[in-house]
Amino acid sequence: MDNFSILIGGQAGYGIDKAGLILARLFNQLGYRVYIYRDYPSLIRGGHTFSIVRASKERICAHRNKVDFLLALNQETIDLHKNKLKAKGIAIYDSDVVKADGLGLPIGQIIKEENAPEISRNTCLIGAFAKAAGIDWPAFEAAIKQNMPKELEINLKVGKRGFDGARETVKIEKVNQPPLPILTGNEALSLGLIAAGLQAYVAYPMTPSSAILSFMAEAADKFSLKVLQPEGEIGVIMTALGFSYAGTKAAVGTSGGGFCLMTEGVSFAGMAELPIVIIVGQRTGPSTGLPTYTGQTELHFVLNAGQGEFPRLMVAPGDPEEAYYWGALALNLAWQFQIPAFILTDKTMAEGGFNFDLNSIKEVKEAALPKRAFPGDKGAVVKINSYEHDGSGLTTEDAAITKQMAEKRLRKGNDLAEELEKYESVKVYGNNNASTAILCWGSNKGVCVEAARKFGYKVIQPLVLSPFPVKQFEAAIKGVKKLICVENNSTGQLAQLIKLNGYSADQLILKYDGRPFDLDELEGELKKWL
Questions:
Q1: Which of 165, 349, 391, 398 yields a CA-CA distance of 20 to 30 A from 372?
Q2: pTM, whole model, 2 decimals?
Q3: What is the pLDDT of residue 380?
């Protein structure tokens, strides 16, 4: 099997996410490249949750609709997902609570006999899968030892019971390529910020950016980070701007609802020329919307957030390597130009699991402090001001000075656009000579690149959304006669953005139900325009 998928599902709170990661790491040890799609409700316990783990000999960043194995801890998983199982696929399930065709084991009974915790039902189920997939016991044992150091002995016991109770149905062979680390987009982005010299991270938990706060807190001592969780999002942005004023490189993370509360602080950063990195993890809205599902709905909100006119950087990485690299660049450029910089992610990008290849990323240098004074510098009086002010920070309403300061801010935006020409702000994949191109941004990169291979299309991915890289975009669409824009929103926000810059999409493929495109779905949509 060169390319296969496994869906594992059960009740929220029963360790499905961890089980999916163990499966992914098992395949990773066998030399496969993996992608993890996570689907869970906004509940701590109860409700249905599942993960789809896809493995391939080639690099992948998207899941498929059909699966080869369906691993079920409850009847609901079978009932909801049996239509996803391929004709020759197999369901593996807990026969104590599930009625289905396939391979059933009395997992509940095994757990009782071994006096094991309920959450170890996952281990028993994965053990049965390993045997059914022709994966030998040492490989499974190594995966458990790596991922379950706590209660290792009992997990090995129940895993062996599951392994011994199953039968081999297919053979997943080892691939001759080295394993790569598996990271979420949030983790890769965090590491990129740290590589560029991040000194402080401030956030209030809000899905899908919450995991960055946890990651930074765990990394705080190792990297000398200051990590704070204030009482709310207004406190977050103002605390971070306080760090910036003092010369401390700071970033914040939130989602659309939290960012709403930060917008006046964003304007303050624009007026006071305080560098700050703001991560906005998009999800389905408006308002609270679907808190644990995905969307690409904040492009224009972030692009226009804050009163008045001031330059900003806005980037949207499409895989963990880009998250790492552009996270670092965002911090560097924010400090170089003394502006707010935004990193747009979404639930798919932020919480998906990907292989991560650090060696494929260009070296990132640590952000340098600008030649300006900071509080505490000898003989310096440092002022910041939310009012219009002169070069010394003194409030003014003088017309000439007001015009002069506005033009200074505009020049910074022009200089930023010129600086970005040094970087690959628009990427092109696939058949460069194709007359049909797919236009995408953010997390849709992976599914679009893979779908384009089937149809021989070109893929155009703007990484920088503000200032929009007009020259590079013009070069990318040269020779394109049909441009198909793929987005996870209902209005075509990237299509609107390119229209503002003098270009237009010929077709829109939009999905706005909170779920990302799977590869089969996108291929089906593209067939309509052949």
A1: 398
A2: 0.96
A3: 85
